[in-house]
Amino acid sequence: MHKFPAIKGNELKRFCEKLGFKTARQRGSHVRMRHDDGRVTTIPIHSTKDIPKGLLRKIIKEGIEMSIEDFLERYLDWTLLRANTRFAPTNAPFQKEKKI
């Protein structure tokens, strides 16, 4: 089993959107997300703080309704995919600066 990652609220929100959740409403620093199949979860969005591990486990088990192992596998794949696409070279050629 992998070590439990430290996840910020915005990152968890983006991952839930990738799983099919949509933002239903936001009140203050808490975002309520809803899936088409009826699953609902609330994610705290505090810019500088990671979500506490106990709360993250509760969100995964009760809100997202996934096993911890399945969540970790999908989340780690998602983060690796994001890292690879973020720094991948583009196929577009460099544009030369015009001299005046």
Average pLDDT reading: 86
Strand order of the largest sheet: 1-2-3
How far apart are the termini? 60 Å
Q: State the helicity in percent bands.
A: 40-55%
CATH class: Alpha Beta
Q: What is the 3D form? A: globular
- Biggest sheet statistics: 3 strands, antiparallel
CATH 2nd-level architecture? 2-Layer Sandwich
In total, the number of domains comes to 1
| Count of DSSP-assigned helices | 3
List keywords for this structure.
100 residues; alpha+beta; Metal Transport, Frataxin, Chain A; three-stranded antiparallel β-sheet; 3 helices; 16% strand; globular
In short:
The chain is α+β, with helices and mostly antiparallel strands. The chain contains three helices and three strands; from the N terminus they run αβββαα.
Write up what this structure looks like.
The chain has 100 residues and is an alpha+beta fold. The protein has one domain (9-79): Hypothetical protein (Metal Transport, Frataxin, Chain A, 2-Layer Sandwich). Helices cover 41% and strands 16% of the residues. It has 3 helices and 3 strands, in the order αβββαα. It has helices spanning 9-18, 53-64, 68-86, and strands at 22-27, 30-34, 40-44. The protein has a 3-stranded antiparallel sheet. The radius of gyration is 18 Å and the shape is globular. The relative contact order is 0.16.
